Amino acid sequence: MAKKHLLKDMTWVEFKERLPENPTIMLPFGSQEEQGPMAPMGDWMLTEAIADTIAERSGAIAAPTMPFGYADYFRPIPGGIAMRPDTFKNVLWDICENFLNHGLDHLVVFNGHSGNFPLIDQTIRKIKEERGVMIPCINVWRVMTPEKWQEFHPELGTKAFGHGGDPLTSVYLHLFPDLMRMDLAEPAGTPGELIGLPTAGLNAVKFQGVDINVAVDITDRCSNGVAGGDPTQSTAEIGEKITNYIVDYTVAFIDHLKSVETRVR
Questions:
Q1: Mind listing the pLDDT tens digit for each residue in 202-251?
Q2: Is there a contact between 161 and 223 (Cβ–Cβ < 8 Å)?
Q3: Residue 199: closest CA among 185, 214, 187, 184
Q4: Which residues contact 83 (CB under 8 A, 6 or more apart)?
Q5: In terms of residue numbers, what domain contains 13?
Q6: Apex CA 214: angle with CA 213 and CA 215, to 5°?
Q7: Most CB atoms closer than 10 Å: which of 25, 69, 116, 260?
Q8: Which of the 8 DSSP states describes residue 164?
Q9: Has residue 67 been placed in a domain?
C-alpha cells in the first residue's frame, strides 16, 4: 500500500508513524484574487494541485493549502479575499510552530502567490532567530529561468510573464480547462498612470527609466486585470511543460533538503 502524501487524508496515527523519518512537510500558500477576465480567481487551486503531485513523487507530505494571501493591490476588484499583513504572518507562524513543536524541522513553504513573499521572508527570519530552524521558500511562479521562458514561449520569452498572462494562464488551461473563459482573453493594454507617470507592475511608476515605488492598485495599472504578458498566446501544452518543470525542480530541491541539516543551533 502506497504511503499517503496529503496531510488531510491521513489519520493522526498514520502521521505519527511517519514522525521518526522526519519527513519534509510542504506548506502550500496561494491567493484568492483576480487573474484577468478569462481565469478563475482561486489561483491557490494551481498551487494545491502541483503540490499534490510533488509530494507524491518526492515522499514529502503536503499540508492543506492556505487559499488566502496578502494581495492588497487587488482589493478594488470584487471576489478577492486578502489577509492583513500581520494576519498572514501570524497564520504562517502558527502553521510552522505546530510542526516544529513535534520535532519536524524539514519544512518548505511552497508559495504560489509572489505577493506573499515579503511577509514570508519576515516570518522565516523570525523562526530562524527564535526557533533555530531554516525554512526555505520556493516561489512557485518564479522558478523559471530566462532560458526556460524562451523554451516555453519562443516568440515572447520573458515578455510572456505577467499577472493575467503566463505562467498561470497556461497552467490553468492545463489543469482546469473547464473553468477558463478564453473568449474573454486579451493582451495587456497600455499601463495606466499615477502622479503623471506610467505604472510599472503593481508597486512602482517609471521615472527616467527607473522604478519609483508607490502604492499601485491593479485598477491603476489596467482596466481588465491583465497587468502583463499576453494570455491570448497561452496554451494547455505550454501549461503542461511549465507544470512538469515546476514539479521536477521542486522534487529535486526536496531531495536535496532531505540530505542537509536545517537546524542552525
A1: 999 999 999 999 999 999 999 999 999 999 999 999 999 999 999 999 99
A2: no
A3: 214
A4: 68, 69, 70, 91
A5: 7-143+242-258
A6: 135
A7: 69
A8: T
A9: yes
Question: Which residues of the chain form beta strands (DSSP E)?
Answer: 25-29, 61-62, 107-111, 137-139, 193-194, 197-200, 204-207, 210-213
CA distance 177 to 174: 6
Determine the average pLDDT of the residues in 78-107.
Answer: 97
Residues 206-219 pLDDT 10s: 999 999 999 999 99
Count of C-beta atoms within a 10 Å radius of residue 256: 10
pTM across the whole model: 0.96
Residue 191 resides in a domain: no
State the sign of the Cα–Cα–Cα–Cα dihedral 24, 176, 218, 227: positive
Q: How many domains does the chain have?
A: 1
User: Which whole-number Å values give the CA distances from 258 to 15, 22, 64, 120, in the listed order?
Assistant: 18, 9, 21, 22
